[in-house]
Amino acid sequence: MPSAVVAPRHLGGHRTLTKRSASPPTSPTKTGLGQDQLRRNNLSALLTRVHLHGSISRASLTRGLGLNRSTIGGLAATLEDLGLVTERQPSAVRQSGRPSLVLEPRRDNVAVAVDIGVDRIVTALVALGGDVLHQRQRPHAPGEHDVTHVIESAAQMVEDLLVAEPAARCLGIGVSVPGAVRDSDGFVRFAPNLGWVDQPFTELFSERVGTRVFTGNDANLGVLAEHLRGAAVGHADVAYVNGSVGIGGGFLVGGVPLHGSRGYAGEVGHLLVDGSSTLQCRCGNVGCWETKVGENQLLVRAGRLPGGGPEGVAEVIAAAAAGEKRAADALDDVGQWIGAGLRAVINVFNPEVIVLGGSMAALWQARQDVVDKTLDRWTLMSPRSDVIIRASAFGLASPWRGAAEMVFAPVLADPASVLELSTPAQAGVG
Amino acid sequence: MPSAVVAPRHLGGHRTLTKRSASPPTSPTKTGLGQDQLRRNNLSALLTRVHLHGSISRASLTRGLGLNRSTIGGLAATLEDLGLVTERQPSAVRQSGRPSLVLEPRRDNVAVAVDIGVDRIVTALVALGGDVLHQRQRPHAPGEHDVTHVIESAAQMVEDLLVAEPAARCLGIGVSVPGAVRDSDGFVRFAPNLGWVDQPFTELFSERVGTRVFTGNDANLGVLAEHLRGAAVGHADVAYVNGSVGIGGGFLVGGVPLHGSRGYAGEVGHLLVDGSSTLQCRCGNVGCWETKVGENQLLVRAGRLPGGGPEGVAEVIAAAAAGEKRAADALDDVGQWIGAGLRAVINVFNPEVIVLGGSMAALWQARQDVVDKTLDRWTLMSPRSDVIIRASAFGLASPWRGAAEMVFAPVLADPASVLELSTPAQAGVG
Prior knowledge:
Protein name (chains A, B): ROK family transcriptional regulator
Organism (chains A, B): Nocardioides agariphilus
Oligomer: homodimer
Family (chains A, B): Belongs to the ROK (NagC/XylR) family.
InterPro entries (chains A, B): ATPase_NBD, ROK, WH-like_DNA-bd_sf, WH_DNA-bd_sf
Strand content of chain A: 15-25%
Number of strands of chain A: 16
Number of domains of chain A: 3
Pfam family, one (chains A, B): ROK
Radius of gyration of chain A: 23 Å
Distance between the termini of chain A: 73 Å
CATH architecture of the largest domain in chain A: 2-Layer Sandwich
């Protein structure tokens, strides 16, 4: 019977162990579901769609969620009572018959995003639904990378943002840090490019601003933003490689963020790519990928001074295009090493899409041929055959966009929990 | 208010993006749940516990699943009707009052497991609940690695097993292959150590045996077995590294198997660890991890002939213990390269536990000090601090144990689907 030859889809077949399964099919920890979990799941699913689509009709929610009209109506009413969505008549009725109400996120629910970079701090106020209401940027005072200065500077910038929206309900503050952040409490174990080791950053910052703070690794947050709203929408197996002074990696595996047992996973910048190198990396090792493709490596290789940042990289790319041999050679060299590192990423993760962030996007665009040649030569046939490589959709903004999503996450997972948040007056900083 | 300083657990806090979340909290694909999915989930959760625990009382199921007694009773009755479990009075009543019925898996539901190794084929008949009823092993005829010979040989071995249990309901055949297997249909893209490229193995084998066949990569199946019943029980972030002639990697990320976009992920054997090496790997590259720590590399380094397999490796370890310098030096050298590769695994995945399978377990046990020294020197501080390294619980059997679980998976995920399987008479091979 031919129909039985290959495992039928409806029986699972090969799909049973693919990325579509949220956990191993025989997950030992699987538990029963009651009516309250059922309702929480459905409230969460509805609010998540409204948050990601911005504005969506009851009719499309009914189709998208596979629930009937009356269930959708009840869920929408609950979210309206929670102050998370509003319902309105559609602006234009396209067909005859009763028009379907349109749900919209209430933009007076806001997340504060903070990006602590090596050279600057960026803060932004992001509304439920994803609109960026305000944004600020401030360079670090020279030599003031230390936690105390960073917290004070960031706290003042957060206050500036919140006073601009006095009526908003602040759902929390999300912070992106270029280092290893412990998932359980946001303790920063290791941020070499800031010079931080074992800093209770999240606790200190929470005490200073009086609001709940979520802290994450910049690349882990970057891949989340690209997955939800950027260059990796619709892809469940994603590698995000963020290149600046250092190299950070953020990964989605079957739609699940790769964090590891404590939140330190994804350190592809320290993969050994050149065993014969003698140049020491900030991690203490030699031959790390980041010592071959970091911004300063390119700048020095091209005869420039280190520390030029993304602008310095852009200048080298322009000079190479204008025919400067030393700049062109530096790009060729870095292009080959980008390929060498991406080769490992492809063989280990077999991603559907690789999103390049920070300076690495510009470097790849300038030397795509060199990168591709390295990959075609050295990557295992199978995973290479269908990987897509793209530049980040948000550029330098991916990490703080993801930081905002990290703040929305618990409310999206359990919308009723928003009631347990303090009111604007209490949540307001200072 | 101090209680609000650090993000409260019940609001998600830092947990929201950790491995405990089955998908990103703002998963764009999250859908609604209806009553039928609710019931399927609960049937699945109950059968999964019975399958993994072998025998479990209604009382502990009530506690473990968080469902009430009557719900458990109804679910148990349905599974009994499906012929998947039996209920019996407990053998010994320890306390007064009504004794709680005990559920057991019906062992006449069987999975056939097939492990296609480089030198031999192993087959086993595994019952629901995990008991191994029968096992067979047969070496490949010299030079008969090709798909046609392997399929015929394996099919005969499968027939031998099934005639031994004529009354059993065969849930399917699970096959472990040492190569890149496409998730969607079990097509084998690349199995270098068998010399297979682009082979429709699963389709051909299904046609030959007339039963549904599931095919997976050996290391991906190995980590599943170790997670469900072996050295990684209770761990959600697991790295399984299987070393023999080649090196295979199987990973669990937040409890989700790492398969990648097509099922080719986990190829850590081809990570570059020695840029100065000139020895070419079977993948066509040079400097791959597997060229430094594969069985034959150790044997040649120790002055033995390649092809000695696990027995050859054991002989070298014994000779080194007996004082043979050349053997000891070879082990020291391989031990350092094992450390170099595990360093990358730790920095990229930050696993809770690394399970070593095949010859690598023995090599690590023989040179644990050398491996640890390399890790302590070169691994990033954070992920290194709490990783556990262990030998596989099933040794060479992990891949076929996992292959059996791959067969049980769709039935555990949707127990009612077992009705759509053909009866023993029809499912019987031949």
